[in-house]
Amino acid sequence: MSSTADLTIRQARILLPEGDLQVGDVLIQKGKISRIAPEIVGTETDVEVDARGLTLFPGVIDPQVHFREPGLEHKEDLFTASCACAKGGVTSFLEMPNTRPLTINQAAMDDKLSRAAQKCLVNYGFFIGATADNLSDLLSVNPTCGIKIFMGSSHGALLVSEEEVLEPIFANGSRLIAVHAEDQARIIQRRQQFKGITDPAIHSQIQDEQAALNATKLALKLSKKYQRRLHILHLSTGVEAELLRDDKPSWVTAEVTPQHLLLNTDAYAEIGTLAQMNPPLRSPENNTILWQALLDGVIDFIATDHAPHTLSEKAKGYPNSPSGMPGVETSLPLMLTQAVQGRCTIAQVSNWMSTAVAKAYCIPNKGAIAPGFDADLVLVDLDNYDIVRQEELQTKCGWSPFTGWKLTGFPQVTIVNGEIVYNRGKLNTEVRGKALTFDT
């Protein structure tokens, strides 16, 4: 393990909390941002980073990933996934409970935390999964960023789809509830209706917009009844976005993924089952509505839903191919490319991928470049474009739906708690992140 050394970042374009860019130096001491100034003199540090021409952002906090450990390590594990995070500028992640065994009690949570402490190059937090009968665990397990409910797209014991089973979870306790909002009964019915069709594009019809809307309406109903903190994961449809535009209580947040903003049903013809995910990709019209909802603040932030499967698993053909795609390595350059091309600002991207996430999950001292904040930072190159190359990916699954895309904003240096974990193509695999804390 490495020990934290003091560090100075020299002459970066620094994105300040108010959204302005300032060229200057950043002094990092004992893992925290100590000082920001046009030039810092008279202070020598162990490490200096020449950041001329690069832009400094708060590290990305990815609030929805599936890193597959324990039990499914052939797809991904905490080490390979955190290497991918470091390369992608993701300095913290929140991971989902659908591992084997499921993360549904204190023992499983403790096991994940122990594994992460040994393996993760970046900071980590974990959701506790809701089942039909683990209410006492949902109230007592610590530490956790929140409760994950799969309302649809079946996950065995984690499937909690009926209102009478959901209601006690919303009625008891105060922890954030994050929902995968799809109507499982409708999915089952439509799966039967379209049985025998092997074109993966049918996936978007089976798990259609109405299935998503039904579940989001139910989650909102229960959230309002109990004034319970609710977060809607990977919002995928325009009808859901417009529902929230008309009726979104102050305690409700929502996220969208880069793939639901940038890919649509046209992708099935190009990359087949590599475009298959839950909830599915939607029509191009949905891309436009989701973008506007994000720009207007109806959608609060961005997550990747990094959910890798091997290429051999994806090659089984629909409906035997699993749903999910990797994302932590490409999310920041994908969004920064949109900013450079004028669709949004780089300050908005940083808010959506860091600041707003830290606020929503009450993660202290993250999400801003300011004195006293943790030194979780990423330096990116906004002046040059490069190609997403499959052979350069760190994720164990070894593929991306964005292979071949020409993007800007690739991370050059990633810093976690004041330590350089990624530096211009090289990972420092001695660095270990920390367990995130969540203020209540």
Describe the overall structure.
This protein is α/β, with parallel strands linked by helices. Helix content is 30%, strand content 22%. It is built from 14 helices and 18 strands. The chain has helices at 78-88, 106-119, 135-140, 163-171, 184-193, 203-206, 209-226, 238-246, 258-262, 267-271, 284-296, 311-314, 331-340, 346-360; strands at 7-15, 21-29, 32-37, 47-50, 55-58, 60-65, 90-95, 123-126, 128-129, 147-150, 177-180, 230-232, 252-256, 301-302, 377-387, 406-416, 419-423, 426-427. Strands 1, 2, 3, 4, 5, 15, 16, 17 and 18 form a 9-stranded mixed beta sheet that branches. Strand 16 and strand 17 (419-423) form a beta hairpin. The longest helix is centred in the middle third of the chain and has 18 residues, at 209-226. It is globular, with a radius of gyration of 21 Å. The protein starts with 6 loop residues before the first strand and ends in a 13-residue tail after the last strand. The model has no long low-confidence stretch (mean pLDDT 97).
Question: What structural class do helix, strand and pairing data support?
Answer: alpha/beta
Output mean pLDDT: 97
Number of strands: 18
Q: What is the helical fraction, as a range of percent?
A: 25-40%
Which regions contain 5 or more consecutive residues with pLDDT less than 50? none
Which outline best applies? globular
Radius of gyration: 21 Å
- The total count of helices amounts to 14
Largest sheet: 9 strands, mixed
